[in-house]
Write a structure and sequence with these properties.
With 328 residues, this protein is an alpha+beta fold. It has a single domain, classed as phage-related protein like fold, CATH 3.90.1690. Helix content is 22%, strand content 30%. The longest helix is centred in the middle third of the chain and has 23 residues.
């Protein structure tokens, strides 16, 4: 056995008679970083038909209207045609790479204190891709479904605010007006459509706007909203509307501008009444991110790449969904 000399002062917290204190750490790393959004888990996942992914939208059935009524002994049928439009969406890519240095891996294995970090960091890289995806589902910067001006999605918020067919369904609730009544009326107008069978399924908004709704219900009606469970066992408040009880789902990725209650810079808070079955994510390869391990280069680093291909599509954006802007 060979003995060697080492200076322990550089690593020890205290050296004294009968005691040498060295740094020790908890084996678990504190981590409450946000990793997902309920919106991405509740919309439909469908395979892309290609690049771009193409689909048809029928905006009117072959309906003769009043021209269909005629003398039964002198029938001259009215010619009718369906109204169909071809649409498409360009697929986009979200990519992240993490590298593990061989030296650091060997050192970690030998110390055996944070042996799980390689797996954790790889899982967190995939989660990071999903966080970017969840934020872009609402807020992607592209201005057209077929646009290539940016590498981002065209966010669902932009699709609802200005439907590709030129039809919009936007409602503004002014300062002093009831938020609850405004939302209920917007849902009623959607359900009352004589051209489309619309059944909204949820209302998404920033948690601050949902807090204003809670305060209004308590102050004006002395009512506390019921709750129900949605994706992942999360319980949210429910709002009674003409489409039934709709969940008020808080979504941190829906930001707002201004300051609530400010007279000089009032807040502008968006909410979205959506029919989730009509919001699709067209994926390529797999709905979840795929992870690939690259070959070991001469730098001796293990390289992993997480990638996700796809794009969101809001079908019937101008009539099956609604953007509500609340000024406060």
């Amino acid at each position: 056995m060979n003995a060697t000399f080492a200076d322990i002062h550089a690593a020890a917290d205290f050296i004294g008679p009968g005691a040498i204190e060295v740094p020790l750490y908890q084996t678990e790393i504190f981590d409450i970083c946000r990793r997902s959004s309920p919106f991405g888990q509740r919309i439909k996942q469908v395979p892309a038909t290609g690049h771009p992914s193409r689909f048809f939208v029928e905006s009117a059935i072959p309906n003769p209207g009043t021209a269909g009524f005629m003398n039964p002994r002198a029938i001259v049928p009215a010619v009718v045609t369906p109204a169909r439009t071809e649409l498409s969406v360009m697929l986009k890519a979200i990519v992240a790479q993490i590298n593990y240095n061989l030296f650091d891996i060997e050192l970690g294995d030998q110390q055996k204190q944070f042996a799980y970090l390689q797996a954790k960091d790889l899982v967190d890289t995939v989660s990071g891709v999903m966080v970017t995806h969840d934020v872009a589902l609402w807020n992607g910067a592209e201005t057209s479904l077929t646009g290539t001006a940016t590498n981002q999605y065209m966010g669902c918020a932009a699709q609802i605010a200005a439907d590709s067919n030129g039809v919009t369904n936007n409602v503004t609730i002014s300062e002093g007006a009831s938020i609850v009544n405004g939302l209920k009326t917007a849902v009623a107008q959607m359900v009352a459509s004589n051209g489309y069978l619309v059944r909204p399924t949820a209302i998404y908004a920033n948690p601050m706007l949902l807090d204003l709704i809670d305060q209004e219900m308590k102050a004006e009606f002395n009512v506390v909203l019921n709750t129900d469970s949605i994706t992942g066992g999360v319980r949210v408040k429910m709002l009674s509307t003409q489409a039934g009880d709709l969940p008020l789902i808080p979504d941190w990725s829906l930001g707002y501008t201004g300051m609530i209650g400010s007279s000089t810079n009032p807040a502008v808070l968006p909410a979205y009444i959506v029919t989730e079955d009509l919001i699709e994510y067209h994926w390529l390869g797999d709905p979840a991110p795929c992870v690939f391990q690259l070959g070991l280069p001469n730098s001796l680093t293990y390289q992993y790449v997480a990638v996700k291909f796809g794009a969101p599509v809001v079908k019937g954006a101008g009539y099956a969904h609604c953007q509500v802007t609340v000024n406060r």
